[in-house]
Amino acid sequence: MNAMCAGKTIAVLALIVSATLIPRIGRAADAMEVVLDQASLMKLPDKVSTIVVGNPMIADIAIQSGGLVVVTGKGFGSTNLIALDRAGTVLMERSIVVSGPRGRDTVQVYRGLLRETYSCTPGCERRITLGDSAEYFTAIAGQTDARNGAAGGAAAAKAPAR
Q: Are 59 and 81 in contact (CB under 8 A)?
């Protein structure tokens, strides 16, 4: 009789474990993971009329032909994307999780509470990342804006007059 009780206990425990793990595995597959400042592609279902992004400060989308959407990570966190048909029926709902850069090519230097980020591919260069100290972020953003302005000015100077 003890063997029968032990068998039932194991069966109940297996049922409880599977009931808690299987939904989590299914939800994890539904989440799209995007790295900050990177883009990923997502295929939409047919007949999509409206797309809603829960928080566009976390993820941005650009609709492409062939039912593709480019999802770009704009800020850390998670949000959702909902695709509706013309009648307002939900065709798809998907979580989007935006995380920081991964890998050995990004280095973060902390000076007390202040943080600086460097991209080291192969040499280390300054890089702007959300969460960097305000002074560092502003200095690098200013340099980037000045460089882009100079490049735009050079391109305009080379353009033929109309």
A: yes
Question: How many whole angstroms separate alpha carbon 64 and alpha carbon 20?
Answer: 38
Q: Report pLDDT digits (tens) over 109-132.
A: 999 999 998 888 888 888 888 889
| pLDDT at residue 70 tops 60 | yes
Using alpha carbons, list the distances in angstroms from residue 106 to 2, 117, 120, 128, 156. 58, 7, 6, 11, 34
Separation of alpha carbons 148 and 121, rounded Å:
22
Residue 54: name the closest of 90, 92, 80 by CA: 80
Find tokens 């994890």 and name the residue: 28
Burial 43-75 (b: 16+ CB within 10 A, else e): ebeeebeeeebeeeebbebeeeeeeebebbbbe
Domains observed in the chain: 31-100 (2.60.40.1080), 106-152 (no CATH)
* Residue 50 · residue 83 · CB < 8 Å: yes
| Closest by Cα among 105, 134, 103, 133 to 118 | 105
